[in-house]
Amino acid sequence: MKVRTLFLLIVLGATAVFAALNWNAFMAPATLSLGFASVQAPLGLIMLGLLILLTAFFLIFVVYLQTSVLFDTRRHARELQASRELADKAEASRLTELRAFMESELKRQAALDAESRAAVLARLDQLDHDLRAAVEQSGNTVSAYIGQLEDRLDRGAHGLAPRPL
Length: 165
Prior knowledge:
The chain is mainly α. The protein has helices at 3-21, 23-27, 43-157, and strands at 29-33, 38-42. The longest helix is centred in the middle third of the chain and has 115 residues, at 43-157.
């Protein structure tokens, strides 16, 4: 039980005990002025009746507030659920679009990879051919120089004058 509810029950119980202990004073007649007439009535009983009437009014008011808050809460919960479902559908749609985009990009990338592998292999073949040609040409050049050196050495050894370069 909440502290406020417990406090309210204690106050109402204390008022009931006070009224029971002083019932004779509550029932004592008094002259009451209504503004346009005077009436003989028990003032304590009228005040106790007003207290009960106000308590009932406030209880009805609290029940009304609680009910309206409950209905608003349920309405907001339904709206929130509808919004959540809409957001989930939108998110699922975005994920589907992203998946489709990624699949198309991966397929395109795979095609590009196959093409680029073929291009790289062709380029490597060309570079290999060029390198072999350059090595062969260098070998021929070195052989020619060696041949010239041998020729010079042979001419120099036989007493012939070396050829001018």
